[in-house]
Amino acid sequence: MSVGAVPSSASASNESTALAARLLADKTATLARLAAGIAHELRNPLAVILARVQLLELAMKGGKSLPPGKLETTLRTVGEQAVRASKIIESLSIFARPRVPVLESVDLGQIIGHVLSDLRAESSEDRIVTTEVDVAPEAMTVVADSGQLTTALRQLTLNALQAMPDGGRLRIHARARDGSVEVIVGDTGGGIATHDAARIFDPFFTTKPSGTGLGLCVAQTIAEAHGGSVRLMASGGPGAEFVLSLPTRWRMP
């Protein structure tokens, strides 16, 4: 009878050491990418704010006052960029330290309505986007953290709108399926290239000029905190569809 060779303790120790080294290298590389992404995304709004403040400072030192119109524009720009930086930090906080959801029975149709209303109010672009909303009766009420669900749907909807800079059709459908409530957010934009599909949930990965690369990973983080998921269902163009899935096992009476 032959007996197979038993790995020595030294060999096992070497393998464990190599595995630990690889994990540390992966973690270090991930942190480096996050740090680079944070620096890049915050540098832009801070640079704009600094430039506008320096403009005001030069005017004051020269004893000159800016015309009312230019002063208003300058202050508005500073405010907008400060809000942008704040939203980046808020998204990072959600991604890094997701809060435990406070579950309650919420009206999904009402949340979708609020998200669309807020995004319309914030939009100043001259483009035509038609909206199609269809919430099935069995999906109208879900158990979720109202604030977190609003944030997740806002990010998915904003992602769809950013994919259609020249206008198009936004679709938000909700249905009950296989023990879950699914919210499908679709657009008629250029779609997502096959080689990008595997990276779209990575922090700071974006193909959009105005995107931060945080929206999809924030939506995914919130969904996973609820025991659900966000997945890309259709891509490649024209358009893309994302599915936010929430379990119905938490449904309240």
Describe the structure.
This protein is α+β, with helices and mostly antiparallel strands and 253 residues long. The chain folds into 2 domains: 9-96, Helix Hairpins, CATH 1.10.287; 104-247, Histidine kinase-like ATPase, C-terminal domain (Heat Shock Protein 90, 2-Layer Sandwich), CATH 3.30.565. It is 51% helix and 19% strand. The protein has a 5-stranded mixed β-sheet with strand order 2-4-5-7-6. Helix 1 (9-61) packs antiparallel against helix 2. The protein is globular. 26% of the residues are buried. The mean pLDDT is 81.
Characteristics of this structure?
253 residues; alpha+beta; Helix Hairpins; Heat Shock Protein 90; 2 domains; 5-stranded mixed β-sheet; two-stranded antiparallel sheet; globular
Q: What string, H for helix and E for strand, traces the elements in order?
A: HHEHEEHEEHHEE
Strand order of the largest sheet: 2-4-5-7-6
Total count of strands: 7
The unreliable regions are none
Helix content: 40-55%
- Output the CATH homologous superfamily of the largest domain: Histidine kinase-like ATPase, C-terminal domain
**What's the average pLDDT?**
81
How would you characterize the largest beta sheet? 5 strands, mixed
Radius of gyration: 23 Å
- Structural class determined from secondary elements: alpha+beta
Q: In the CATH scheme, what's the topology name of the largest domain?
A: Heat Shock Protein 90
How many separate structural domains? 2
Please state the overall shape, judged from the principal axes of the Cα atoms: globular
Share in β-strands: 15-25%
> Under the CATH scheme, which class of the largest domain?
Alpha Beta
Could you say what the CATH architecture of the largest domain is?
2-Layer Sandwich
- Give the helix tally: 6
